[in-house]
Structure formats: C-alpha cells, structure tokens
C-alpha cells in the first residue's frame, strides 16, 4: 500500500488529532488511532482513513476486528479493489478471516461493490464459521451485483434453511433478482417474495419501492400502483418509481397525473422525476407542459446541467417539432453525454434535418471523445441515405457490422426502404 503514501493530500484535522505532542511526548494509544480511523470513515474521508491505517502499521499498532471493517469500508468507498485485496491479505495474516464475522462481511461487501469475482465472494463466505443475517445479505447483494440472479435466489433459499429470516435488505435484493428473470418466472417468484414481506409485516418504504419497481419491470404496472396506494410513507423514490412505471409502459397520461399529485403534495422533483415525466409530455405532444417543466429545471441549480434531464428535454422539443429549441438545450448542456448526442441526432433525422444530423455526427466523432453506440448509428443511418455526398458512409457501414445485431438492423432498413 506504499503507493497511497504519495497520493494522499495533506493531513486533515482528524489526522492532526493523533500526531505526537512534542510538549508532552505522549504517543497516541491504540484506542485513539482506532477512534480516529473510524471517525474518518463515518465522515466519508476515505483517503484520510487509509493514511491513518498506514500510519498505524508504521507505528506498530496491530489492526483488529474494529480496524479492518472500517478500513475495508474506506477501500470500498474508494472503489479500489487492489487496495482491498492487500487489506484482505492482512486480514488472513492475523486470522480475522475466520474469527470475525464482521470482518468477513465487510470483505464480501467490498468484493461485491468493487468488481471482485464470484470466486472471491464465495471463498470469504465459505470460511465464515458462524454466519449471521448480515453474512447472507452480503452474499445475496454481491450476487445481484454480478447479475447472478438465480444464484441470489438460491442463496435466499439456503439462508432460510440456515435458520435466518429475511430482512428488508434481503427482500430488496430478491425483488431486484425477480425483476431480472424471464417474466413468467419473475412474476411467480416475485409474488412469493411479496407474500413473504406481508407475512413478516415489513412495511418499510424501501421494501415497497423495490416491490413497485419489480412489478413495473415485469410489465405489471397495475400491481405496482396497488403497492403504491397501500402505504403512506412515500418518499421521492416512491413517486419516481410510479411515474417511471407509467411512462416506460406508455401510460403517459397517468404518469403526468401522478406528477401533478406529487407536486400538490409538495414533494420536490429531482432529476429522475424530470427524466421520467418529460417523455410523457413528448409523446402526448404537450409542449406547453414541457416548457413549464423546462422553466422549473432552469430555476433549480441541482437540475441544471444534468445529462439525463438535458437529454429528455432535447427529445421532447424535437418530438414536438421544436428542433431549434432542442438544439438550444443541446448547446447549453454543461456535460454532453452520449445520450444527449443521440437525442439531438435522432431529433434532426426524425424532422428531416439530414444535413444537420450528419454535421453533428461529424462533430461528435472529431471533438467529443465519445464512441458511437448502436443508438447513434440507428439515428444517423437514415440521414446517410438522403445525403449522397456524405463521405463517412463506409465508416458507418463498418459500425453497423461491428455492433451486435447491427447487420440485422441494416437488413431491416433495406427492406423498409430506409437504406
């Protein structure tokens, strides 16, 4: 971990708290080091926490089952897998991989969050001699991070056989796993998860939010709405989930109606709300409503410059044949993600501005530093057909061939007379 010693900034006030006092020649005790480290982690001062951990080792302070969970959380917060593996080596060296369930749980969480392997996760989990509920939840959560939905469900079954009841954290992971299964299986198992939550009387907001999202992703928007209407402690995530559920399932009027109720209940919209409700204005051709939402965005600093919000506004204006307004939003965007480029390209093409689409595509290729994706190609390909002088047709043809499913898309365009 020596690399960290040269990348850290100057010590924070917390670090100064354990520096030796020349007047008294007192050296901080082990407890003071640990308190400093844990305080830094609680304040999300992760680099400072790693600095403290290194200093502890230099001073000969042996890390224990209080130090390792804190420093592993710091490594997780920094998304530094290599650092986490070095700390794991120390965990094994001092025997805490088998003697402390808290340390092991922290390791599982690190590997799940920082891109470790399933092998890493199972290796730690299998060495835990006395697992607790957190151990199982950490395993299930890690498997979900790896998109191993069936394995997560199997771990849930084994958790029950091991005598542990699911918590809200378990149910949230299970709802996520079910939402990523084939629709029939996901709905069947998802209803069982929902029934389980009712049996243990779990009324927590984030559990209900997860169930709402699960039903929506499985195409059961009315079931999502039923969950929404049955609990009172709704938060911004609850409202965003129900609005996006309607919007993503082409029930745009209901999305707008719920947005109106949300405003009347004085729930402040965030970027997810705006990104979900603006497409409803677009599909219903409600330009005036869309402009009102745009005005709201311009009055809120935390929404200005958000790439998702900007992309949805560009799309809305272009779908309402207000291409110039869409371009103004594009030009004023503080950060241009691939999404906003695609929205503007599609807006030009759909409105017959083929030359402008190709000029924008050329600008994107030369100056944005972004790589086109299949959506980009799908947006610009029709413009190529209408501009015979465009010199990059072979480049775009190559992109179509490279992207998964691109050739199929190209043949469909030919059949439909687009290419």
UniProtKB/TrEMBL annotation:
Pfam families: PPR, PPR_2
PPR repeat copies, ranges: 132-166, 235-269, 337-372
Domain of life, source organism: Eukaryota
InterPro entries noted in UniProt: PPR_At4g14850-like_plant (IPR046960), PPR_rpt (IPR002885), TPR-like_helical_dom_sf (IPR011990)
PROSITE patterns (UniProt xref): PPR
GO molecular function, one term: RNA binding
Xref: Gene3D superfamilies: Tetratricopeptide repeat domain
GO biological process: RNA modification
Keywords on record: Repeat
Region Disordered, residue ranges: 1-28
PANTHER family on file: PENTATRICOPEPTIDE REPEAT-CONTAINING PROTEIN
NCBIfam families associated with the record: PPR
Name by which UniProt lists this protein: Pentatricopeptide repeat-containing protein
Lineage: Eukaryota, Viridiplantae, Streptophyta, Embryophyta, Tracheophyta
């Amino acid at each position: 971990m020596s690399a960290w010693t040269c990348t850290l900034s100057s010590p924070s006030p917390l670090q100064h708290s354990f520096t030796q006092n020349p007047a008294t020649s007192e050296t901080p005790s082990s407890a003071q080091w640990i308190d400093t480290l844990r305080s830094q982690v609680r304040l999300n001062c992760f680099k400072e926490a790693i600095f403290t951990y290194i200093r502890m080792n230099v001073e000969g302070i042996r890390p224990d089952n209080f130090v390792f969970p804190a420093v592993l959380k710091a490594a997780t917060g920094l998304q530094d897998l290599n650092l986490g593996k070095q700390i794991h080596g120390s965990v094994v060296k001092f025997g805490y991989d088998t003697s402390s369930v808290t340390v092991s749980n922290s390791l599982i969480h690190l590997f799940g969050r920082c891109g470790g392997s399933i092998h890493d996760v199972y290796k730690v989990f299998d060495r835990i001699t006395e697992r607790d509920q957190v151990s199982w939840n950490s395993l299930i959560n890690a498997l979900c991070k790896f998109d191993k939905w069936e394995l997560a469900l199997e771990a849930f079954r084994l958790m029950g056989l091991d005598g542990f009841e699911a918590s809200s954290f378990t149910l949230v992971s299970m709802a996520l796993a079910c939402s990523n299964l084939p629709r029939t299986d996901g709905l069947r198992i998802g209803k069982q998860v929902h029934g389980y939550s009712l049996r243990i009387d779990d009324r927590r907001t984030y559990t209900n939010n997860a169930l709402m999202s699960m039903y929506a992703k499985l195409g059961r928007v009315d079931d999502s709405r039923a969950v929404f209407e049955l609990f009172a402690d709704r938060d911004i995530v609850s409202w965003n989930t129900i609005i996006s559920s309607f919007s993503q399932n082409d029930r745009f009027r209901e999305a707008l109606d719920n947005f109106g109720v949300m405003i009347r209940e004085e729930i402040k919209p965030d970027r997810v709300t705006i990104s979900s409700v603006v497409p409803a204005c677009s599909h219903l051709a409600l330009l005036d409503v869309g402009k009102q939402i745009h005005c709201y965005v311009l009055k809120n600093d935390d929404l200005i410059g958000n790439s998702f919000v900007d992309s949805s506004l560009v799309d809305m204006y272009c779908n309402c044949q207000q291409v110039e307004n869409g371009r103004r939003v594009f030009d004023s965007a503080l950060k241009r993600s691939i999404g906003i480029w695609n929205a503007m390209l599609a807006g030009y093409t759909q409105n017959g501005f083929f030359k402008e689409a190709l000029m924008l595509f050329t600008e994107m290729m030369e100056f944005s530093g972004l790589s086109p994706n299949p959506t980009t190609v799908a947006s610009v390909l029709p413009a190529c057909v209408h501009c015979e002088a465009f010199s990059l047709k072979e480049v775009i043809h190559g992109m179509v061939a490279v992207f998964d499913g691109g050739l199929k898309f190209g043949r469909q365009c030919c059949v439909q007379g687009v290419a």
